[in-house]
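Replying to the earlier thread about multi-chain prediction with a worked example.

Input:
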Amino acid sequence: MKSDLLAATQATAPPSSRRALIAGFATELFHRKGYAATSMRELASVSGIEAPSLYNHFSSKETLLHEICFGMADAFVSTARRIAAMDLPVEDRLARAIEEHLRLLFSDREAVGVFVNEWRHLSEPSLQTFKSLRSDYEQFFAGLFQEGMHKGVFRQGDPLWLGRQLLLLMNGSVHSTARPDSEALADLGRRFYSLWMHGVASPTTQPD
Amino acid sequence: MKSDLLAATQATAPPSSRRALIAGFATELFHRKGYAATSMRELASVSGIEAPSLYNHFSSKETLLHEICFGMADAFVSTARRIAAMDLPVEDRLARAIEEHLRLLFSDREAVGVFVNEWRHLSEPSLQTFKSLRSDYEQFFAGLFQEGMHKGVFRQGDPLWLGRQLLLLMNGSVHSTARPDSEALADLGRRFYSLWMHGVASPTTQPD
DNA sequence: CGCGAACGAACGATCGTTCGTATGTTTGGG
DNA sequence: CCCAAACATACGAACGATCGTTCGTTCGCG
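Result:
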């Protein structure tokens, strides 16, 4: 009845599927307000829809979170696998890993925010799977550091600790860095690489 | 009635006030499950109390969050002020700032977790005040970097960006580092300082 | 004609919070 | 020194709001 107009104008309008649009709105809300503080009715409202209609596209609220978190996680680990298979010096693979991580990070900052901060609201068994993927990715960076230490390119240290710290640093940089174009992004990657490799001390300063 | 026994055993028992105990439980819950996902009934349950009784100690749920967040924030900025007033070379003040920040960080990891992740659930005007305190603290670190650059101790760069990155790194390290005793903590401080000053590259490696 | 997608109504659960009340403790005046 | 009034703190009941979700239905499109 009263929905005739909406159905006529909206149900056919979006060339990009409504499902994908809703996922995008959910990403924005989960990022800005947090998963627990976002209601399905609010998501429905910004989607231009009523709450029950959401369930024609997603079977539950958690399904939305699941798709966002695992979408990012899969992207990260597949990138890691690609780089690990490259025939490059270890420090170049590190530089490449930083650059690609940053590229993914800034390709969808909101999804990354959800990926980083809201994954804990997943329930089992997804939660275990997610943690496992995360661990794989950390191990990839740890492996780079370990190899570099072995070859004398890096100082000795705890490779897993270093890997986690580097990821922490890059992930957090999403909040404190303006959206870069592709050139600025490559530059940001070099900044990170340089900071990580040589620190902030002036080159004339003697290491301890 | 049925509360005779409880009142006799508990109301007089705690030398540490029940109010402080509740704040501690709230810190643990807000840290582990998030502010929005923690209910007053659950907090009451772990406090050994019924939900309405919480309101004899705190006037609202947000009051709890407020006390936790501003308790940490005040500790951080007062420490910063103390260090800024010291008559030390800038790189030593940086080392000291790192050490003191880590000390505070590990003095109450759960409160820090809330401070870092849950502050956005504060409502105005507390939210503005909180952000302002946070900004002061970031500016303190930025000032150290700026001064160091000016004196030629540090490489050139964006001081505010560097300050935020360093804070990010240390705050995140709470999750990925085992609880250190006071000796291990000083050591962790040196690790951070060294990583930040000289990076991971082997000393024989040439900077770009 | 059937199917995907929208709707309004409504479910039971849980949310933060308020209220009136009971009870133990503290305290001050006779 | 004792008793009563005031206070602090606990309780059960319950409020209105909102939560995620289900249901039966409608309706346009292929």
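Residues 62-197 of chain B form a domain with the Tetracycline Repressor; domain 2 fold (CATH 1.10.357.10).

Feel free to reuse this layout for your own posts.
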